[in-house]
Amino acid sequence: MHIITTVQEMQQIAGELRASGKKVGFVPTMGYLHEGHLTLLRQAKKENDIVMLSIFVNPLQFGPNEDLDRYPRDIERDERLAREVEVDYLFYPSVEEMYPTDRTTNVEVVKRTDVLCGKQRPGHFAGVVTVLMKLFNITMPNRAYFGMKDAQQVAVIEGFVDDYNIPVTIVPVEIVREEDGLARSSRNIYLSERERQEAPHLYKSLCMAKERIVKGERNPKNITSFIKEYIETNTHGVVDYADLYAYPNLTEVEKISGRMIIAIAVKFENARLIDNITLTVE
Length: 282
Prior knowledge:
282 residues, alpha/beta, Rossmann fold, Pantoate--beta-alanine Ligase, Chain: A,domain 2, 2 domains, 6-stranded parallel β-sheet, 3-stranded antiparallel β-sheet, 10 helices, 9 strands, 39% helix, globular, nucleotide-binding, Cyt_trans-like, EC 6.3.2.1, pantothenate biosynthesis, pantoate-beta-alanine ligase activity
């Protein structure tokens, strides 16, 4: 595995790989790798000649009261895990390398952001697409892999790539879960023992909601009310949101039909967990 820390070197290597006809799969991350990230890397390995991984904690996507400084970091562990799944290139730039000067332009996101996490994190997705614009230009991948745990992010990125005709195929990958159903996340380490025991109820609430839809429920409000009540009854977490939208447009619907997403966010004492499921209703 080659570890690259400068934009110039990474861009040169990426250009040479493109010119040689090699197919490049790219997994952008903020590090502290877990099984979800490794699943993305393994799929990229199967579908491409070369696998690139980036580790960069992007300050642009953190709000003023969010956990940039607390975000877990362990580059030695990340390097070991990346080698185990046979990553070819690890791009590990500093903030100064990625943002050496004040930007003269801004990339804005005008749709799919006023709901779910985006509603409470103004500017977050602008930070996401800004760093992706840079990373895609630096690594020049054929395919880029993203986990569906953050389905809103996937929807935003797909729209962004389409809008700007960026020559990369976005590959969504299903959520990786613990044996008890909890979606794997870097933030799970902040859960207390009691919270960790309660956390699987998040996914259970989504599964039960889906079952109600399969049995004929078509009123979105009945579904979201059920989820909130279930989580509040079975956990000490505070429901941030429990919503149902059309996907990927993330627009409200009066009746459950077509491709939908049910998404939740729950605040525990030291961690805010998100989860979702998508389903298609005829």
